[in-house]
Amino acid sequence: MDSLLEHGHVDLVARAAAERDDWFCAQGAVRALRAAGEFERAWAVMKPFAETGWPPAVSAGVDILLTSGRVEEALALTRPVGEESSLGACEVYAETLAKCGRIDEAITFLEPHLRDRWTMRCLVTMTEGQGRDARVLELLVPLADEARHHQTQGCSHPLWEALDLQTEVLERSGQVEEAIRVLGGDVAARRYGPQNTVQSYAQLLARHGRVAELQQAATGDHAREAFRPLMKAFTAEGHAQDAEESLRRHIATAKYPSSQRGLLMEFLIEQGRFEEAITVGRPTFEDPWESPLQGVVVLLAEKGLHDRALQLLDECSPEFVAERGDWIPSNRWWLMGELGRCREAITEIEATPELDAEERACTIAGLMAQDSRLAEAISLLAEHPGRNATADRAHLLARQNRPLEALAAIPSVAAQREEHEQRWGPRKDWGAGAEDNDSGSSKEDHEGHVEDPPF
User: What angle do CA 441, 447, 450 make, to 5 degrees?
Assistant: First the structure.
């Protein structure tokens, strides 16, 4: 879908959304139509999806309607019906009220539902910049204190996120000292939820230049969480050398310095000191448990040093490659392609018999396409009916400006569902929003209570 839109085929994608009942195509077409100012057409595409009541589709429909000034229609679309409405639907309605400037009404509507972490997050997000932080804190603080009470007794609590949310609202309302005091107290008392409270505290300190407190955290029990924000705070103040010296001192004395050694390598690479970074990391490149090599390879490639990254892979011992380096061959071929050595990489792949047939075809086809051999790549992928090969072939057909063939190459949602159920049995969360739909990008994140898409 992205490839089709990139080549200007918005009409085809919009038609596919309707004919194939395809959520990804609907999202893509609406994005393109809104960018072109064609809001009536965008609503026509999204309307069938929004009217199912599925919250992500309803929310997308609301944005179109509000951009068009159709406020009452947006509110009517989102207004929950009956007492059995899902929390996801309630959140969308509250967000719509807020977008319409009815923020107090939105807060009141959400208040009975706040014993849910996603609804709490919705409350905080929709009220940002609305001048209602005092009211939000009135609602959050009792929930946060309840979570603290349980955690003090060593019990987990479903409202643990209220701790971080309370701090977030305090900070954005200008009460920075209070935010630091509250979250610092939670850290000191080890009141941690599944989210890393220590990391949140370190990032809060860094945002406000509290270097002394960060240094204290970094030299105590929280070095893993504190050093990255500390480095950013130092660097933001123009003290990159102090940051480096502090980190090197810690690495020299720490019992388990692996994460900080990786951070130092990242820092040096960002500073353009590539060989120093490699020297720091080289003793750990073949660590059987925490090798940083793959991350270093990616960072070097991002800086355009594909040849140096490839050299590091070529220097790996056969034993490391056999035991822990299953990622190395594919990374080598990728780097060779970036260096214009596509045909050499293809020769290596063809001489690697243990590769899965579809994986081999996709990798070779990608290198062929990079080598301007699109027709050969498409022909090769046509020999393999697997999902990855099919998606890659559709992408290449779109690049060749063969949009109808590209779309036809991807099975419909119904066909994908049938194929999956034949192989694995029924899947309750299958639908146009499911991640296995190869016609487009990954599923739009919608944190909250979202029932299965009905289309």
Answer: 90
Q: pLDDT by residue (tens digit) across 117-133?
A: 899 999 999 999 999 99
Which among 406, 409, 452 is positioned nearest to 432, based on CA atoms? 452
Structure tokens belonging to residue 65: 């309607």
Mean pLDDT of 382-386: 92
Residues 319, 320, 323, CA angle at the centre, nearest 5°? 85
The Cα 258–Cα 254 span in angstroms is 9
CA distances from 176 to 35, 103, 122, 169, 218 (A): 38, 24, 22, 10, 21
Q: Which single residue is written with the structure tokens 């290198």? A: 367
pLDDT at 434: 40
Kindly provide the residue ranges of all beta strands, DSSP E only, lying in 45-118, ordered along the sequence.
none
DSSP notation for 171-240: HHTT-HHHHHHHHHHHHHTT---SS-HHHHHHHHHHHTT-HHHHHHHHHTTTHHHHHHHHHHHHHHTT-H
The secondary structure element, H or E, covering residue 47 is: helix 39-50
**DSSP-assigned letter for residue 284:** G
Q: Which of 133, 59, 141, 138 is nearest to 103 (CA)?
A: 133
Helix (H, G, I), strand (E, B) or coil at 361: helix
Angle between helices 103-110 and 133-152 (to 10 degrees): 20
**pTM of the predicted protein model:** 0.80
Element at 287 (helix H, strand E): none
How far is residue 341's CA from residue 371's CA, in Å, rounded to a whole number? 9
Q: What is the DSSP code string of 307-326?
A: HHHHHHHHTS-HHHHHHH-T
Q: What is the largest CA-CA distance in the chain?
A: 67
| Tokens standing for residue 370 | 């990079």
Structure tokens at 200: 């949140």
Total residues found in the chain within this entry: 455
The half-sphere exposure of 81 on its side-chain side, counting CA atoms within 13 A, is 6
Angle ∠(84,105,126) on CA atoms, nearest 5:
90
User: Which residues, other chains included, contact 271 with Cβ-Cβ below 8 Å and sequence gap of 6+?
Assistant: 240
Q: How far apart are CA 384 and CA 220, in angstroms?
A: 55
Chain centroid to Cα 93, Å, comes to 25
Least confident range from 50-64, 136-150, 233-247, 417-431: namely 417-431
Written as one string, the DSSP assignment of 416-438 is HHHHHHHHH---TT-STTSTT-T
The encoded tokens of residue 78 equal: 């989102």
